[in-house]
Amino acid sequence: MTGFRVLIGAGHTTQDPGKKNNDIKEFEVSKTILELVYSIISQTTIEFQIVPIDLNVYDRVEWINTTGYSEAYNDIYIEIHLHDRNEQIIQLWYKALKAENNKSLVLANTIGEYISKKRNIPYECISEYNSPNGLLTIFNVSVIPICIEILSINNPSDIEIIKNKSALNDIAKALVEAISHYLNTIQQNNQVQVIDTTLFKSTSEIQTNTTQNNLNSLSNSNNQYSQFATSQAQNTVSTTTAIQNDQQSKDIKNFKLLSIEERKKIINEIYLKVLGRPPTLKEESDISISTDVQLINKLLDSQEHQDILNKFKQSKELEIKIKELEEKHNIYLLEQNTLKKNVDSLIKINKIKDKVITILRKKLVEAEITKKGEFFDVIKAELEYTLISSNTNSPNSNNTPNSLQSKNPINKNIQVNQNQNTTLNNKNTLKYKIIRLIIRIFKL
Asked: How far is CA 237 from CA 8, 111, 128, 225, 312, in A?
């Protein structure tokens, strides 16, 4: 429901730590109490927000005034401080108003009275008019404000509390109970759930449950985050899974409880892991994000992240195409290599053929088959080869034995002619053999 909401913050910053006592700084103690308050109030039904720490007072005012919280809805702001008085007392500063019903004074008095009874120490409500620095800047907010100086930085008993985490947790618990008491007191129609303060658990139980609840919340909110890790494959998968594993090993970080430098460091790490780039100055200074998980989910839902996924998908498709082209290229290289070997073999064969032809040309000239420089006509050689072959195998050729021919005087002249024919035939036979060899070579 709208109204009766709570804003809680810590005073001062790392640059302006407030009051000091040796190694004790007001800002560091206020911040620790705020962290404990956050752990406790998270277990209740109170609607609240933590004002980001480490903002200067003007930025805190601006942040509060942009939340939509308003005095008209009875929304309140409590800022935690320490004082430097020696006595053990609670000081509450309220906004100076002329109205008879000063809601800031009512808030201060109700909170102070409750904690005073719990701790059995006095409290005092002080108007901002009494501030040595004039009206308090932090009271220029749209809600009902008070500043509570809940411990003394100089009182020995309070210093013991400051140095004891368990004792500080009791202070934080008392503050949350006081806030609940205030809401119950001003709520007339029980629209706000009454908190039974007897149900507050021990410090260890609260911390254990807070851790478990945070881890459960992180697990649920990181489902989409895990899907992103799966889709990113080699590079993005490892970085995103690292984020998830890192988050599951500890509580969710509430940015509002971190200093500016701590917040910037974590924001920078998340941007680098999720989007692969550092944040801009504007993104780095964004205080609208409450937790690291909220920032992660915001980045995962961004168009920039969707573009990364689309580019990754396109790159995977290109990888497949490149692989196919590489396979085709390898086949082409193999075929090209085989073809080159064949060409090299043909070149070698042609060189041998040329050498043989050169030798045969010389033999043709020596055998008076051709003249030097004369072109050897293969077709003509084939015809001659045919004629020689037919003459050699002709049935009309003289096959009479030489002994018979020599005894016949009449055939003496015929024998001479036969001898001449034999010489011619021998010559033709040689020519026939050479021509046959040449024809075979030329037909290779």
From this structure: 38, 50, 55, 10, 11
Q: Say whether 5 sits in a helix, a strand or coil.
A: coil
**Strand, helix or coil for residue 124:** strand
Q: What is the pLDDT of residues 126-153, one digit of tens each?
A: 999 898 887 889 999 999 999 999 999 9
Give ranges for CATH 3.40.630.40 in the chain: 6-200
Q: Are 372 and 365 in contact (CB under 8 A)?
A: yes
Average pLDDT over residues 157-181: 94
Measured in degrees and rounded to the nearest 5, phi and psi for residue 143 equal -115, -175
Helix (H) or strand (E) holding 158: helix 156-162
Q: What are phi and psi of 208, to 5 degrees?
A: -65, -50
Domain 6-200 has CATH 3.40.630.40: yes
Q: Which whole number is the average pLDDT over 360-369?
A: 75
Amino acid identity, residue 281? Answer: L
Work out the angle at residue 257's Cα, subtended by the Cα atoms of residues 289 and 109, and round it to the nearest 5 degrees: 110
Instruction: Please give the Cα distance from 274 to 276 (Å, whole number).
Output: 6
Q: Average pLDDT, whole number, for the chain?
A: 77
**φ, ψ for residue 329, nearest 5 deg:** -65, -40
Q: Which residues of 6-24 are buried (b: 16+ CB within 10 A; e: fewer)?
A: bbbbbbbbeeebbbebeeb
Backbone angles phi, psi at 24, to 5 degrees: -90, 125
Of 85-94, 152-161, 333-342, 403-412, minimum mean pLDDT range: 403-412
Cβ atoms of residues 14 and 259 within 8 Å: yes
Can you give the pTM of this predicted structure? 0.56
Judge contact between 202 and 181, C-beta under 8 A: no
State pLDDT tens for residues 52-111.
988 999 999 999 999 889 998 899 999 999 999 999 999 999 998 876 789 999 999 999
Phi, psi of 104 (to 5 degrees): -65, -40
What CA–CA distance (Å, rounded) separates 198 from 221? 32
